[in-house]
Design a protein that fits this description.
The chain is mostly loops. Helices cover 15% and strands 11% of the residues. It has a single domain, classed as Herpes Virus-1, CATH 3.30.40. It contains two helices and three strands; from the N terminus they run E-E-H-E-H. A three-stranded antiparallel sheet has the order 2-1-3. The longest helix has 6 residues.
């Protein structure tokens, strides 16, 4: 199950579970669309994988399977 991490690892932008701007690689490294389409050029800086739009989770399922609150971006 996806963690649905709450922020961009590069710039710290908030990425709520329903965000259309969240991008992930196969290891769930998480970045915002602005970083991915700009400086990262759609390549994960951690693993070299391709960054794709992150799926969303229906709100009724978020209650049972909540998104992560562990922030990975700059503090």
């Amino acid at each position: 199950m996806l963690e649905l991490r709450p922020d961009c690892e590069r710039c710290g932008a908030d990425l709520p579970p329903d965000s259309a701007d969240a991008r992930i690689c196969s290891f769930e490294c998480t970045f915002c669309a602005a970083c991915v389409d700009g400086p990262l050029d759609r390549v994960c800086p951690n693993c070299g994988g391709e960054l794709q739009p992150r799926p969303t989770r229906e709100s009724h399922l978020l209650e049972r399977f909540p998104a992560s609150t562990d922030r990975k971006g700059p503090q």
